[in-house]
Amino acid sequence: MLISTLDHLVLTVHNIEKSCTFYETILGFQIISFTDGRKAIKVGDQKINLHQTGKELFPCAKHPTPGSADICFITPKPISDYVRHLKNSGIDIELGPVKRHGVFGAMDSVYFRDPDGNLLEVSHYL
């Protein structure tokens, strides 16, 4: 068996609209609306489905919990540009910029949290 890429993952959130606004405004992601009212955010060629806590779709994780994710996103811009954007948007930086090592090598990273407390890392490959 061969896995070639990630199609989607799911984030369980307290408030779908608040999460959509955050990911669209702070990360520039596109919001996808499904005919049944569900929402997702588009990240490059993948998507993140958003499930409302207590209203998860079956089947789902054994213990779907808002704030339990740790996700790294890649930006083509220097991390200093992203730090400036976060500060201008009133987002608290948890850590960074710091040097990290990703799947393709050395990168600069900055860490912050979404409205549910998920740890988000935005990185720029050097």
Jot down its keywords.
126 residues, alpha/beta, four-stranded mixed sheet, 8 strands, 42% strand, globular
Q: Gist?
A:
This protein is α/β, with parallel strands linked by helices. It contains two helices and eight strands. The strands form two sheets. A four-stranded mixed β-sheet has the order 1-4-3-2, with helices on one face. The protein has a four-stranded mixed β-sheet with strand order 5-8-7-6, with helices on one face.
Rg over C-alpha atoms, rounded to the nearest angstrom: 15 Å
Shape: globular
Number of helices: 2
Mean pLDDT: 95
- Strand content is 35-45%
Task: Please estimate the helix content.
Answer: 10-25%
Structural class: alpha/beta
E-strand count: 8
- Mind describing the biggest β-sheet? 4 strands, mixed
Strand order of the largest sheet: 1-4-3-2
List the uncertain runs.
Answer: none
Distance between the termini: 33 Å
H/E element sequence: EHEEEEHEEE
Describe this structure in words.
The chain has 126 residues and is of the alpha/beta class. Helices cover 17% and strands 42% of the residues. The protein contains 2 helices and 8 strands. It has helices at residues 16-26, 79-88; strands at residues 8-13, 30-33, 39-43, 46-52, 70-74, 93-102, 105-113, 119-125. The protein has a 4-stranded mixed beta sheet with strand order 1-4-3-2, covered by helices on one side. Strand 7 and strand 8 (119-125) form a beta hairpin. The mean pLDDT is 95.
Tell me the layout of helices and strands.
Blueprint: E1 8-13, H1 16-26, E2 30-33, E3 39-43, E4 46-52, E5 70-74, H2 79-88, E6 93-102, E7 105-113, E8 119-125
Parallel strand pairs: 1-4, 5-8
Antiparallel strand pairs: 2-3, 3-4, 6-7, 7-8
